[in-house]
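Look over both lines:
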Amino acid sequence: MKPLGELKEEILKDPDVKREYDRLQDEFGFASMLIEARTKAGLTQTELARRMGMKQAGIARLESGRHNPSMKTLQKYAAATGHELSVRMLPRM
């Protein structure tokens, strides 16, 4: 079996796959940021859900990168993990 990094490198040689990967980078980057905040806070999805007043499945959806949470939900997530939410719009370079 190939290591994950090697497999990823091989798959991304396909231009169609690379284009789609790049297109989804922001979504999955955001999801990774959420997961990192939760794990650094030492919380499981279930513990975080309890703090936020939701179900574990809702946290899983947020962290999947395929759900567009409201600002209120993101504020709750940030507070529950000991973070402050900051949203910025930057000009394109």
About this structure: The chain is about 65% helix and 0% strand. Residues 15-40 form the longest helix (26 residues). The mean pLDDT is 92. The CA atoms of residues 8 and 27 lie 18 Å apart.
